[in-house]
Amino acid sequence: MKIVCYFVIQSLMKSKKSEANAVKRIPRTSRDLQAAERRVQILQGAKDLFGEHGFHGTSMRMINKHVGITDGLLYHYFPGGKQEILETIFTEGQEAKMESMDKLLASIKPNQPLEDALTQFLIGLYASG
């Protein structure tokens, strides 16, 4: 029961933060859209390389080459370098997991037995990755 309460509270807190961040991230122009797409490319490329070579085995130059950008452009998107990229990957992954948990919690009916609700929640959590 304590675990479910913890997740509910965390979910509500993260949900409010995610909503506030989502407003900031909406691309307004085609240039903003290109920048958002480039940022996603950089993060995906870094994930691929971190998975293959590890964090310490991946250099900024490797990420640049993998994504096809110049050395300076990567620092434009991530001034904190490789550490900021890693933190962004974790943060966005956590936000996605919290959104998934919010949806799972919303699908639980008020009069549903606790055991059924927990089973539904845990199966949904496992299925979402």
UniProtKB/TrEMBL annotation:
Annotated DNA-binding residue span(s): 59-78
Keyword Oxidoreductase: no
SUPFAM superfamilies in alphabetical order: Homeodomain-like
InterPro entries for the chain: Homeodomain-like_sf, HTH-type_TetR-like_transc_reg, HTH_TetR
HTH tetR-type domain residues: 36-96
Keywords: DNA-binding, Transcription, Transcription regulation
Pfam families found in the cross-reference section: TetR_N
Stored PANTHER family: HTH-TYPE TRANSCRIPTIONAL REGULATOR ACRR (PTHR30055:SF240), HTH-TYPE TRANSCRIPTIONAL REGULATOR RUTR (PTHR30055)
Name of this chain's protein: TetR family transcriptional regulator
Organism, scientific name: Paenibacillus phytorum
